[in-house]
Batch of 2 targets.
Target 1
Amino acid sequence: MNNINEYLIHESNFPAFEEKVEKLNKKAIKLNFPAITFEILETVVNIDEKTKRAENFFKIILNGESPKLNGWKFIARLETIKEQKHNLVFVIPNENIPLAYRESGSQCQHCNSKRYRKYTYVLMNENGEYKQVGSSCLKDFLGHTDPHNYAKYLEWMEQLTVCAKEGETVDRGSISSHDCKYELDYFVYYVAEYIKQTGYFLSKSKAEQLERSSTGDLVWNEMFNRMMKQNDKIVQSISDESIELANKAIEWAKELGNKEKLNDYQHNLYLSCMTNLVDYRSKGIVASLITAYQYDLELIKKKEVEKQEKSSSQYFGTIGEREIFTLTVVKKSHIESYYGSSILHVFEDENGNIATWFSSNKEFEEGETVTIKATVKEHKEYRDQKQTILTRCTEVKKSKKVS
Ligand SMILES: [Zn+2]
């Protein structure tokens, strides 16, 4: 069971609560009373199962110590229900009173009268002794001219606990789309499905350029409208395929943190995903997660292929010998240097083995397959690729272009 001084205040009600504490503390300081404080114990995120909307609650504990007057302090205010002896009990946070005071009626243990009073107070001294005292006897009992200010402290604490208690409930009709937060997973599922059904992703900048709405905004609005039970939407249900894609993408984003070098985009994406929530501000970047993940997959695949191609190249020919080879020109580039311009040919033989040749005047065309006589100058590895370096290439026979 929760401590009775603990409250779960909804984020939308929190500013009002803080304001109240501040206001009462101004009064407390004026009277030299101890300040009323609260501690935030934790932030509790509640996710609505239906709408996937997340709400933050602040779990707080209220602290207040009643000021002492001649060795006594105000512990509780009792409100007696007329014609009965039952009392409504308000006890200051962090204190307790004997349960008997729930049924003690409006008695005054100072003058021992039992007449009806609406309010009585329970005071406690340093020895832990309790006394229920009527409002009009406070002055006499405490030997102080103005004990009612002290009693007020109780009232303030009571107001504050009412405020905290009210803060636990939310008026959901007044929620604006800007204040919403949604569960990250569900939002990304939604984006994945949206892209699947519409066939495209529009980033914020691209959308602005086209004067259209971005995918992030469209999904956000659909989720908000779904919550508000408006039915105009593209996504009716989310496929397993989209969920799987989204889950992989989320996992990928969270693992970005293990990478050494992240660009700003990746860093922001990583941070946005780590909270497991999407808000109005982060919806754009989180919506881009699916395409970013797919792009990264493509990149990895491309690198894999390149690496495989590179690693499959073997040396050929005998160094120092002049031999005949049939090779295809895969790339040709003009290189300018101090010594003049030359043409670098990159060849590939039918087994995917790579050769290079620097020519000063002669050149072959890209895509052309040629049979040449050449001297094998060197076998050399360049960027993980085994390359055969040729010199003095002369064409023996020209064959057709390879398509
Ligand atoms: Zn009395």
Target 2
Amino acid sequence: MPRTTFDRTNVQGGKDWGKAKQRQTEQIDDEIEDIITKNTYPEVEELDEKLTAYKDQFITYDLDGSGDLDDNDVRVMMEKLGQPKNHIEIRKMIKEIDLNGSGTINFREFVQMMLGGKTSIMRMILMFEEKNKEKEKPVGPPPKKSFSDLP
Ligand SMILES: [Ca+2]
């Protein structure tokens, strides 16, 4: 997978935007370190790789580098994924994932959405997309959830 490049810097507002992106990347690296240090997801295999993949996704969709996915970020994300949603649907999707009630999705919430036991619309769409990308690899049936994963 190609690394995220910042060649749109000038289009997006120049130096400040580049700085915001850098800050955002550093902030996410800290979050990842914290998640690993605290062993937040002991049952998850290949956690490092997964967190790196989520970081790439999150940075791609956090268009303004604010560190949060807001309504507009999610709208663009869904359009890119071929699943355009209206304003009400987007609010609902964010609400499913927004743990701290900020109205936006931060990296921690994004990780929890992907790795936590709760199913959400955004997670289903992202996982579907991920599976499509892996089509060339031989894949078995998706792993069944155990009863202990249920909320
Ligand atoms: Ca939030």
